Structure formats: structure tokens, C-alpha cells
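One thing: can you check what follows?
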Amino acid sequence: MQAGNEQRLRGNFEQANAIQQKIREIDPEDPASYAFNLNTLVTELSWEESQTRFDEELISDAERLIALCEDEAPSRSSVDNPDYYCGQAHFVLSYFNGIRGNYIRSGRHGSTAIAHLEAALSEDPDLIRAKMYLGIGYYYADNLPAFIKLFSKVLWFIPSGNSAKSLPYLREVMASDDDFSDVARYIYATLLINGSESEVADALSELEILIARYPENARFQLRYVSVLLGDNQYAKTLDRIQRYMASPAAAQLKQIDADLMNIWMARAYLGLGKIEQAVRVQKSIKLDADNSVVPAWGLAWYELTGGQLSDLLGNRQAAIASYERIFLLNEKTFVNPAIVDQARMLRQSPFTLPGSTINQEQAL
């Protein structure tokens, strides 16, 4: 599983899945393969929560993992702890039910997850990766408003938080030599990006570490750029994107990731008032709304940028059409309320420079 986790951190989900499937073929009763796959599916959903193509597999694997851990099925992996695996399964089901709006069910699984993970840690105090999941759970419970702001519609009800075990737990995992240390690092950075100035700086520092270790993972790059953009650092945003796109790491960049990067570039140019450059970049973006790999947040920012640029160019009809597409997208799936509110306001009054600014990274 260590090799699979490494591939996942490098953004190579196809290879990670191949490793997981091979392990499951060797031993279909090993709970580790199910836990690994569930982590992969949650990673996919955290990037685009509206997609449903993983729902059936996620529920099936979670139920199978619960059955295995309740039977205390042994694992050949480095962790052989039934409570740890039960905790992971309920953790994933809590997250999944939360993003699907099943809040009572989400809360029930969340409570069960914490109980199992605490039991696993009690049984094995050196099981450092259990602290990662507990750190996330306790953070959500302690910072529900911040969590709602970060993940928007998700209401993950966990009975009680524990500030002494949330971010400190994640930092402890990050400082360890555990295979999940960099997974914890990314989660930690994500939780901090809407915080204070020092917390945002801390988040950027941790993302820098991940980018240095896994330069081929475009999601780390996109996250970093979104934080700069959300902090209105437009010139730094452009410099970062341009340097990345000229680097060897961008040579194998998927088209969807290139388009998402160009959305941030167009918005940076817009923030600087460089309309001609923003229009040129915006026209180069070719997003397919029917493509399941295109995240809804990407489409929403693309349409908002297109509408604002159309307004600045005096094409009010095209601008209104872009704003209307945001409303239609919001009817089909979740769109960040900040984007919807901005589109609603601009539907009434055309966008002008300098325009109001909203946090770009909230939609990620």
C-alpha cells in the first residue's frame, strides 16, 4: 500500500488503483485494500463532490470493510487493527453522507468513526495515522462555521470537538515518518487557507513542501495558486502559474488541469485590470460541461469570469448568458454561494473595474 499511496500523492490515480486491485486479487479478505480504495475515492470526491460515478463503489467497499473489521479479519499490511479499519469505513461514510445531504446518517457514522479510532489508538498508542483521521474529525467539530465556509454545503455533525487533538494531531502525523504524513500535510494546509494571515502563510509553506516532493501533482499546484489568488496577490499568481507552465512538471499536464490553471490565470489578469490578456486566456479554455472530470467549481469560475469580461467589453447579452449558466449549474449541482451571489448581483448591474473580490480558494 505504501507504493499505492506514493502514486496517489503524485496524482497518478490510475497506477494507485492498479496496485490496490492487484493486492485485492491476492487477498480479497484483506481490509487494507478496501481502506486504501476508500481513501482514493474520498480524494476524488473532495476535488469534485457532485460527481456520482464513485457512489456505488464507495458504499460497497465501506460496507465490506465494516463486515471484515467486525469479523476481525487480519491484514497483511503494516496496520492490523480492526478498530482502525472500522473507523476509516465510518469516517468515509460520514463524509459521503454529509456531501449527499444525509446529515443525520452522517452524524451517526461520524460518532462511530471517532469511537473506533479512539479505541484503535488506545490499543496501539503508536498508530500515528489514526490521529490524522481523529484530527480532521475533531477539527470539523470544533470549527463548524469554518468548515461550512470551506466545504460550503457540507454539515458533518460530530457530537463534540477537541481542540487539543485536532490540528496538533495533524501536525504530529506530519512530523512522523508515517506513510500518511504528506496526506496529513495537505489536509492541514487545506484547513488553514481561510484562516488568519499567519495561518495562510503556514498553509502556503506546507503546500510548497508538497509541490517540491510531488511536482507532477497538478492539484497541489492548483491549490497553491488558488490561495495566492484568494489573497488578491495577482502578480504573484501570474508569476507562479507562468513558472509552473514552463517547468518540466507541466509537460504531462492533463488538458483539464491546464484549463483550470488558465481559469486562475484569467482571473489574475482580470484582478490586475489587464483585460486584453484576460480575454485571450479565457478564449483558450475549452471546458466541456458534460465531461464528468470537469469540476463544477471550475465551470462556475469560468462562467463568472466570462460574464465579467463580457460586461467590460460591452457585450451585456453575452454577460447575462454566462450568469444564467451559473444559475442553471447551481440547479444541477452545488455551486459556491459566493459565486452565485456575485452572478445574481451582476445579473442586475454590469461588472465594472475595480470590481468586488471574493475568495477564489473557497470553491476548491
Remarks:
- The radius of gyration is 21 Å.
- Confidence is low (pLDDT under 50) at residues 144-161, 355-364.
